[in-house]
Amino acid sequence: MGFVKKITLLLVLVIGLVVGIWFSTENTEVVTASLFGFELPAMTLGLLVCSAFALGTGLGYLVSLLPVLTLKNTNMSLRRKLKRRDQEIERYKKTKASAKG
Length: 101
Fold this sequence. Notes:
The chain is mainly α. It has two domains: 1-53, no CATH class; 63-101. Helices cover 80% and strands 8% of the residues. It contains two helices and four strands, in the order αββββα. It has helices spanning 2-26, 45-100, and strands at residues 30-31, 34-35, 38-39, 43-44. The strands form two sheets. A two-stranded antiparallel ribbon has the order 1-4. A two-stranded antiparallel ribbon has the order 2-3. Helix 1 (2-26) packs antiparallel against helix 2 (45-100). It is elongated, with a radius of gyration of 27 Å.
C-alpha cells in the first residue's frame, strides 16, 4: 500500500507542477501587490498566484501537522505504558508459578 501512496503523491505533485508552469506562462502580465501596506516587487500575475497557492499549501500542511504529532506522541506514550503493563503481568505470572511449584 505504501508504494501506491507514493506513486499517487508523486503523480499529484507532477500534475500540480505542470499546471503551475502552464498557468504562469499563460498569465505574464506584470502586477504589483501590497501586503499589509507594504508594496511587493513587481512580478507576473502567474507567479504571484502560484506563490500564494504554494504558501497557502505549505502553511496548511504545517497547521495540520500539529495534531498529527500530538497524536503520535500520545500513541507512543500509551505503547510504553502497555509494554510496562505486559512486563508486570509476565513477572506476576512467573512469581505465581514459582509459588505453586
